[in-house]
C-alpha cells in the first residue's frame, strides 16, 4: 500500500486540480454570459478560437522558459483529436441554436452514459452497482435543476447526437493520449492548442455567420467589450489547462459527473448576478439530489471494485524526462 503521506498529498493535489477547474470554468461562463448578453458579442466559435490562441501563447512562453520539454505527437493522432474537439465546439453551438434549452440540457446529460460506454468498450472498465446508481442520482438531480421545456426536431436531434459523441470522444482522447505518450497537461496543450486555434480562427467567422447572420468584423469593439474578450481569453487559459489536468488525473466519466457541480454553481451565480428568475423548490431539491449523487459517486467509485479495469493494457510510448519535467509543473499549477 502507498504511504499515508503520499495518499494525502495525492488527495490534496486532486482536490486542488478540481477546484482550479471549477473556479476557471464557472468564471469563464459568467464572463462569457456578460459578454454576450450585455455587449452582444455572440460569436462563440470565434471566441473559442481566441481562447486557444491565448493558450498557445502561454505554452510557447513556457516552452521558451524550459518548463515544457520537446515531445512528439504523431500527426494522425493530432488530426483526430482536433477533429473531435472542433466538432464538439461547433456541435454544441448548433445544438443550442436548433434545440430548446430543455432538450439541450438533456443532450448534455447524455455525455455521462456515452463516456461510460467508451470506457467499457475501450478500457474494459467495470462499474459496481453503487457507482451506477450514484451516476443515475446525479443525472436525475441535474435534470430536475436544468430541464424545463423539451421540444425535439430532426435537425436539432442530429446536432445533439453529433455534439454529445464528439465531446465524449474528445474528452476520452485527452486521457488516452496522456497515458499512451506519457504527456503532461502542458505538453498535450502545446501540441493541440495551436492546431485548434488556427482551425477555429479560420472556420469561426463563417460558422458564427451561419449561426447568427452577423459578421464578426462588423461588431462594435468598444472598450468594455474588448475588456471582457481579453478577460475571457485569460480565464480560458486556466480552463483549458485544468480540463487536461483533471481528465489526466481522473477519467472522462469522473470529469463529467463532478463537472455537474459547475452546473449547480452556474445556476446559483446566475440567480445572484443576473436575477431573471428566483430559486424555486424543485430547483433546490434538484441541486441537493445532484450534490448527494456526486458525493455518493466519489465514495462508491473509490472503493475496491467500484470502478476497475478488468484486463486492459495500453502500449506506452516512453519519453525521456528531466527532474524538472511537466509533472512538477502540473503539481505547482
UniProtKB/TrEMBL annotation:
Annotated spans, Disordered: 301-333
Membrane topology of the entry: Multi-pass membrane protein
Transmembrane segments: 12-31, 43-66, 78-96, 133-150, 156-174, 186-204, 224-245, 257-275, 281-300
InterPro entries per UniProt: Sugar_P_trans_dom, TPT_transporter
Sugar phosphate transporter domain location: 24-297
Domain of life: Eukaryota
Subcellular locations according to the entry: Membrane
Main subcellular location: membrane
Keywords: Membrane, Transmembrane, Transmembrane helix
CC per GO annotation: membrane
UniProt-recorded name of the protein: UDP-galactose transporter 2
Species of the source: Ananas comosus
